[in-house]
Specification:
It is a single chain. The protein is α/β, with parallel strands linked by helices. It folds into 2 domains: 187 residues, Glycogen Phosphorylase B (Rossmann fold, 3-Layer(aba) Sandwich); 173 residues, Glycogen Phosphorylase B (Rossmann fold, 3-Layer(aba) Sandwich). Helix content is 45%, strand content 16%. The longest helix is centred in the first third of the chain and has 18 residues.
C-alpha cells in the first residue's frame, strides 16, 4: 500500500506542540510498517525532524498562500494529479483540510483547531474556515489527539462521533529523568548552577508570556531566592521587540531565553524545578506530557486541554492572573512534599500516553478507511 502524508503547512524547524504530534506519530508509523510505502509531501523543503527511512519518500513542492484561489487550485487539482501520478492508495492530511476532488480514501488529522482559527483569518485560515464542513464530510475518518478536541469538532461542525478517532499522544524517548549529577551539569550550563522554572512553548503576545514574567517578578520579590526562569520555544514576537521588553524587566539577568534542539530541550526539562504552562489556548499540551516523563512537576492554567493531560498531577492556576501563578510558584518552592507527590502522580498519569499506542490507533484508522471507503 502507498500512503501519502500531506504536511505542507507544518513549520520547517524543530517542532512544537501540534507539529511535534504529527512528526512523532508518523515516525512511529513508518517504522512499524516497513512493508508499506509512505510518501511525505512537503512545502519548499524537508523538515529536519522527520526521519528518513527505506519505506519513506519525500516530494517537495511549492505552495503559495498569497491568494485563496491558488490555495484551492493546489489542494483540489494539483494535489489530486500528484496523488494519481504516484499511485497513492490513501491520503492522510496532517492538518485541518481534505482534497475535495480525489476519489481515494482520506484521513484528516486535527492536531488543534486553534492553530488555524484562533488568531484571525489569514488566507489559509479563511480557506479552512469556509471549507471545513466539506472537509469533514469528505474525510473517511477524522483523527484528534484528545477527547477535548474530539468534542470541539463534534460541537462546532455537528459531526458524528463515530467518525472521529482519538489517538492520544506521547513523549519521545529522550524525555526522561536525569541523575543528580546530570541535573547539576544542565543547571551549570543554562542557569549558572541555580534552580529554575521552565516555560517551553511559543514566545509571543498570545501565549501569556508577559503574564508569566509578571508572576516571576512577584515570586522573586516575595521569596528573595536565586531561582531563575528559562524560556524556550518558537519566537512569535519580532526578536527586537521582545528584547526591548526584556531589557526593561527588573529581573532580566535571571531570565534566560533559549533557542535549543529537542535533545537539549529534553535535558532542560528534566533538570527544571517545575514546568510552568500558563497557556490558555485549547490544544493538547505535549510539554506537560514531556515533563511527566522527566519527573518534573507542573503548574498550568486550568483549561480543558490541560486538565485532560495532567488530571490530578498538576497545580492549576488562573492563567491570566500573575498573582495566582506567583502564589503557586511559591507553594511548590516551599513545599517539597507537595512537589514529590506531584512527581509521583505524574509517573502514573504518563502511562496513558505513548506514541506506540497512538500509532496503532492511527494505523487501524488507515486500514478501516481502505476497507470501507
Amino acid at each position: 500500500m502507498r500512503i501519502a502524508v500531506n504536511t505542507c503547512f507544518l513549520p520547517l524547524t524543530s517542532p512544537h506542540e501540534p507539529e511535534q504530534y504529527v512528526a512523532s506519530i508518523f515516525n512511529k508509523l513508518v517504522a512499524s510498517h516497513p512493508q508499506h510505502q509512505f510518501v511525505f509531501i512537503f512545502n519548499k523543503q524537508v523538515p529536519s525532524y522527520f526521519v528518513a527511512s527505506e519505506n519513506a519518500f519525500h516530494l517537495v513542492i511549492s505552495v503559495s498562500e498569497r491568494r485563496l484561489f491558488l490555495l484551492r487550485r493546489w489542494y483540489d487539482y494539483r494535489l489530486r494529479l500528484l496523488l494519481e501520478k504516484n499511485k497513492i492508495d490513501v491520503l492522510i492530511n496532517a492538518g485541518c483540510y481534505c482534497n475535495l476532488t480525489a476519489s481515494i480514501p482520506q484521513l484528516m488529522v486535527v492536531p488543534g483547531l486553534d492553530m488555524y482559527f484562533s488568531r484571525g483569518l489569514t488566507n489559509r485560515g479563511s480557506y479552512f474556515h469556509h471549507y471545513m464542513p466539506q472537509f469533514i464530510s469528505k474525510a473517511s475518518t477524522i483523527v484528534t489527539v484528545s477527547e477535548f478536541e474530539k468534542l470541539q469538532v463534534i460541537n462546532h461542525y455537528h459531526t458524528d462521533p463515530k467518525k472521529i478517532a482519538v489517538t492520544g499522544a506521547g513523549a519521545n524517548a529522550i524525555f526522561k529523568s536525569l541523575t543528580w549529577q546530570e541535573r547539576e551539569a544542565v543547571k551549570e550550563k543554562y542557569s549558572n548552577g541555580t534552580e529554575y522554572f521552565l516555560y517551553a512553548g511559543p514566545i509571543g503576545p498570545h501565549h501569556q508570556v508577559i503574564t508569566l514574567l509578571k508572576a516571576f517578578s512577584l515570586f522573586k520579590k516575595r521569596q528573595q531566592s536565586n531561582m531563575q526562569l528559562l524560556l524556550t520555544g518558537k519566537m512569535e514576537w519580532p526578536k527586537s521587540e521582545f528584547e526591548e521588553k526584556l531589557s526593561m524587566y527588573k529581573y532580566r539577568d535571571e531570565v534566560q531565553v533559549l533557542n535549543i534542539s529537542e535533545e537539549e530541550l529534553a535535558k532542560v526539562t528534566a533538570a527544571a524545578y517545575a514546568l510552568l504552562h500558563p497557556e490558555l489556548q485549547e490544544r493538547f499540551p505535549l510539554s506537560i506530557v514531556n515533563a511527566m516523563y522527566c519527573d518534573v512537576p507542573v503548574i498550568c492554567a486550568r483549561t480543558e486541554s490541560n486538565s485532560e493531560a495532567a488530571a490530578e498531577t498538576a497545580i492549576y492556576t488562573e492563567g491570566t492572573q500573575p498573582e495566582d501563578i506567583a502564589a503557586q510558584m511559591k507553594l511548590i518552592y516551599k513545599d517539597e512534599t507537595l512537589r514529590g507527590n506531584l512527581i509521583e502522580h505524574g509517573s502514573v498519569q504518563r502511562g496513558k500516553y505513548n506514541w506506540e499506542n497512538a500509532a496503532v490507533i492511527l494505523w487501524n484508522c488507515i486500514e478501516n478507511a481502505v476497507m470501507h471507503p
